[in-house]
Amino acid sequence: MRLFSGKIDIIAAEITNNLIDKEQIETESPDEVEQDIAAVLKEYIRTNRDLTEKAKDMCEVRGLPYSSFHKIKRQMAERAGFIFGDEAVDYIMDQIIGTFMHSQFVEEIFAEDHELKVTMRPVIKSHTEIEDEIDKEARDKIKNLQEGTRDWEIEYKRAMDQVKRRRGL
Hints:
Number of helices: 7
Strand order of the largest sheet: 1-2
Strand content: under 5%
Number of strands: 2
Radius of gyration: 18 Å
């Protein structure tokens, strides 16, 4: 699962509208609730980016191959209590629900946590599934390079940027 910063406001608005429409939350300030959700999503992206950079740096300092990157990042994430990858959707939803519990803009929550998740999950999934398509398209562009090499990393980043730009992400 990959969350793009360009989708944050859209996701936050859809989640807020769905929860209000289904009468699962009550608020007098839907815009503020959207901002609360957006803050959770932005923090997720920031933390994920920080862990990625730290793991890359650690691989470089220790002289480890790129194949060690994911293991190191996962260990760092576990220590930080952060979850990424396929389990990230549940982690993000838990963070959003926690924010609702402390938000001054959510007057009342009428649904159980699992009911809120049933409403939020399709919204988050629909906006994050595009990652797989983008990844496949970028990999197809650089299939002549060996994965894990420095050249592959550079070209993969370049290809991802091109695909994202073309799709407006």
